[in-house]
Amino acid sequence: MFEPLTSSTILLILAGLAAFAVAVVAIRIAIKLAVRVGLVAAVVLAALWATGTLELLPGV
């Protein structure tokens, strides 16, 4: 499967650049998702703290 890609140096470089681009896009999406999840968790915890129901959570 990888034989046509590794037979030429130019194709090998292009395949490496494509893999790098996919990794960069995936990391950017993961960071955005992590920030959004963190913001939602912060808002939920702040709401629980403000209503006084934070003590009801086990381990808190």
| Biggest beta sheet summary | none
Dominant shape = rod-shaped
Q: What is the helix tally?
A: 2
Mean pLDDT: 86
Number of strands: 0
What order do the helices and strands follow?
Answer: HH
Beta content comes to: under 5%
Supply Rg. 23 Å
Distance between the termini: 53 Å
User: Runs with pLDDT <50, length 5+?
Assistant: none
Approximate helicity band: over 70%
Alpha-beta content class: mainly alpha
InterPro entries: DUF8029
Pfam family, one: DUF8029
Keywords: Membrane, Transmembrane, Transmembrane helix
Transmembrane segments: 6-26, 33-52
Give the tags.
mainly alpha; rod-shaped; DUF8029; membrane; transmembrane helix; transmembrane; 60 residues
Q: What features would you describe in this structure?
A:
InterPro entries: DUF8029. Keywords: Membrane, Transmembrane, Transmembrane helix. The chain crosses the membrane at residues 6-26, 33-52. It is a single chain. This protein is an all-alpha fold. The protein has a domain at 25-52. 78% of the residues lie in helices and 0% in strands. The chain contains two helices and no strands. The chain has helices at residues 3-6, 9-51. The longest helix has 43 residues, at 9-51. The protein is rod-shaped and about 65 Å long. The mean pLDDT is 86.
